[in-house]
Structure formats: structure tokens, C-alpha cells
Specification:
The chain is an alpha/beta fold. 32% of the residues lie in helices and 24% in strands. The protein is globular and about 55 Å long.
């Protein structure tokens, strides 16, 4: 799914030459509130495949991001598109590794995701927030050709190219900011994830009966105390 800024970035960052006659995969293709698919298909890809963890509009095949290489093979696609997915992937390292691995050498990867300041939005889960420096480090094994902040709401957009001689960078040392724990960490526990989901549900119920200022104060306290 995409917001308006994601769609604008995708239309600018990808070109007809990137797509025409090429094999394109969109990871997280279920169309909830917008998709690049129509724009890219007008440029005549050789194949456009939409995959998501659940069936729905825009989904040709159901496949989890962590299973991409096993399902489709290494170096399979010329273009890999993933918009507004990575913040929802608990094993973000495995997800990003799969995005890189299914991309052909010389191929283009387009990713958009959320940054710190964007509220919790569990569909069904929400884990991580990525900043520009995180993206530079995560994709330091690729050539970053465009890196921009979302001008509508906190987020980050990147276009990267996989080099012909690709050596994947290990990601085990990278701690991301987690919307679950409200701090940078290497991973989150099941208990932390459960408590975060419960707090989100309670907050949605309280929103019907408490003033916005009171809710904002509660949010500040929770953020300060962490998980």
C-alpha cells in the first residue's frame, strides 16, 4: 500500500527504461490505499508479479517476504518494489536479505517505509522505524541512487541498484528504532509485541471517551517509560 508521497516517489524514481520488457515483482502488493502497479504496467513489463502474505486486490500469489528466494530463486527479477512493508516485518533482516537476493545483478530495488514519529499501525503488526542513516547502512552493499524523506508523514524512500559483483552485507549489528519498545533494539520479544497490541486496542477504545490532550499525555508517558 502507498500514500500519495510514496506514489509520487515511485513514479519519479522508476523510469520506463527500468520497467519495459523487464521482470518486476511487487512485494506487499495488496492494494489497501494505492499502488504503483497501474503506473508500472503501462510501461510494458515483461512480467508483473504481485505478492503479499495474504490474498487481496493486486495479489497474484501469496508469499511471505521471508520466503521469496526459496519460492522464486536468486537473481530472478529486474525490478523489486516494496512499499510500506518493512515496518511490519518482525524479521526485517531476513526480509531485506530476500529482497536483495531475488534481484538480478544490475537490477533496481525501490523501497518505502516509515520513520520515527509515525504512529503505530498494526496490519496486523507494526515493529520498526527506519531513518536515512539506517537505510544507508542497510543498503551499503548496493548503489543508492535516490534517498528521500517522505514530505507528507515520517518515512523514508530509497532507490538502490544491485552491483554486478554483489557481496551481501551482514545486518546482525544494526539496531533499529522499534515502535514496540520505543527505543533502538536488535529484536523484540513476544511479550513486548503482545503488550503493544493490547495498549493500541485500549487507546482506540479510550479515544471515544477521552479528550485528545489527555490521550497525548498518556502517549508521552508510555513513550518515556518504554515497553
Amino acid at each position: 500500500m502507498c500514500n500519495a508521497a510514496c506514489l509520487r516517489f515511485g513514479r519519479r524514481a522508476l523510469t520506463p527504461d527500468d520497467v519495459a520488457g523487464r521482470d518486476v515483482i511487487e512485494v506487499g502488493s495488496r492494494n489497501v490505499n494505492g499502488s504503483l502497479r497501474g503506473d508500472l504496467e503501462r510501461w510494458g513489463p515483461g512480467r508483473y508479479l504481485g505478492v503479499d502474505m495474504v490474498a487481496g486486490p493486486g495479489v497474484d500469489e501469496v508469499c511471505d517476504i521471508g520466503d521469496l528466494e526459496a519460492r522464486y530463486g536468486a537473481g530472478r527479477f529486474d525490478v523489486v518494489v516494496s512499499t510500506e512493508v518493512l515496518e511490519h516485518v518482525r524479521d526485517w533482516r531476513g526480509g531485506i536479505s530476500n529482497l536483495k537476493r531475488i534481484l538480478k545483478p544490475g537490477g533496481v530495488l525501490l523501497v518505502t517505509t516509515r520513520s520515527n514519529g509515525f504512529p503505530y499501525h498494526g496490519y496486523p503488526y507494526d515493529f520498526w522505524r527506519y531513518e536515512a542513516d539506517d537505510i544507508r547502512t542497510i543498503f551499503s552493499d548496493c548503489s543508492i541512487e535516490a534517498l528521500e524523506p517522505d514530505t507528507v508523514s515520517p518515512g523514508i524512500f530509497v532507490r538502490a541498484r544491485k552491483p554486478a559483483a554483489f557481496t551481501e552485507r551482514p545486518l546482525d549489528d544494526i539496531a533499529l528504532y522499534s515502535i514496540v519498545t520505543h527505543r533502538r533494539c536488535l529484536d523484540v520479544t513476544d511479550a513486548q509485541v503482545y503488550r503493544r497490541r493490547i495498549r493500541h486496542r485500549v487507546r482506540r477504545l479510550l479515544a471515544h471517551i477521552l479528550p485528545a490532550a489527555v490521550l497525548a499525555n498518556i502517549d508521552r508517558v508510555v513513550t518515556r517509560e518504554g515497553a
